[in-house]
Every structure is written in C-alpha cells, then in structure tokens.
Amino acid sequence: MLRTSIVRLLRVILPLAALALLSVLFLLARKPDPQAAIPYARGAIEELSRSPGIGTPEFTTVTEDGAQVTLRAARAVPGEGDSGTARDVTLDWRFRDGLLMLVTAPGAQLEGEGLTLDGGVHMTLSSGWEMTAPELQAGIRSGVASAPDTVAVTAPFGELQAGAMRLGPDEGEGKVLELNGGVRLLYRP
To answer: Where is the chain membrane-spanning (predicted)?
Structure first.
C-alpha cells in the first residue's frame, strides 16, 4: 500500500519537476543576437532581388575521357534551353592522368555542352605552365579546351606566345597541349 502511494506521488511530481526545470532553462537562456545571424546574401541585395539568377552556383560533370570538371561562379543567370551566363568563374578540370587545370575568368557563357570563358582568362596547369588569353572555349563533354586568339604562356623553361592553343586528349591515354599560329619562344635556361 505504501509502495503504491509512493509510485502515484512520483508519477505526478517527476513530470512537474521536469517541466519546471525546462521552464527555468528557457527563461534564463540568452536572447538571440540579430547581428550574429547567418548572412544569406552578400553585396547589393537590391541588385540580387531585381534580376533572376543563382548565387554561388557549382556544377560538376565528367567528360567522355573520364576527367572531372567543376564550374563555380559568383552568380549565374540561366537562359533559354541549355544556355546561360555567369560571372567571376572558376573552372577546376582534373584529368584522369593526374593533370590539374585551374581556369579563372570574369565571365562565361554556356551554350549546350560548350562553355566560353571570356574577359581575360588565366589558366594554370599543375605541371607548372601558366597561360593567359582573351577567351577560352571548353568542350565539357569532349574534354577539349582551346583558345582561338593570342595566348601568352609561361612555361618552366621560358615564355611563349602563340596565335592559338588547344589542350585535349591524344591517341593514347595522355593529354596534348598544342600551341600554333606563329609560336614565339623566349628560352630561359
């Protein structure tokens, strides 16, 4: 009998004690600081709200020869069908043979499976080569990157200038960097 009354008393007292303890925790908790909130949009919010687009998009795909391509941008605006534009673009291209190509450009246009980076393109290869060109065209599926205009190249052995550049797969498993259109070499031993 005594045990039954103790159990009945504890069935009422324990939930009330837990409720009182939780109430005290919520009352003593700090007020939220609105200045410490997570910023969702950086920059001019008015500009972001007026024009349609995507902030900081990232797109990753694999080319036909197995290279991993990742495209990042500060802002992208989709177009009709498979087209769109982006600004402040970074293209990270990791070939299967270990070569890494990092390309940065102020702007890009996507048209189907072709990507055109423009506005002064800077390309760095993990083999120590650096290139600048006004425009770079990248075939996302085919795995070919080409610059149709003048290319300035800094290589481990010197500096080169060429009328055009193409980086793509060769007949074997590797990659070939072709410089053509009046190539000039300044050799530095």
So the answer is: 12-29
The answer to whether 104 and 131 have CB atoms below 8 angstroms apart is no
Interatomic CA distance for residues 157 and 137, integer angstroms: 26
CATH of domain 53-187: 2.60.450.10
Instruction: Look up the pTM and report it.
Output: 0.68
Q: Dump pLDDT digits (tens) for 33-77.
A: 666 656 555 556 666 566 778 888 898 888 888 889 899 999 888
Q: Is 101 helix (H, G, I), strand (E, B) or coil?
A: strand
Residue 183 identity (one-letter amino acid): V
CA distances from 126 to 20, 95, 137 (A): 63, 11, 20
The CA-based angle 45-83-65, given to 5 degrees, is 115
Sign of CA dihedral 75, 77, 78, 79: negative
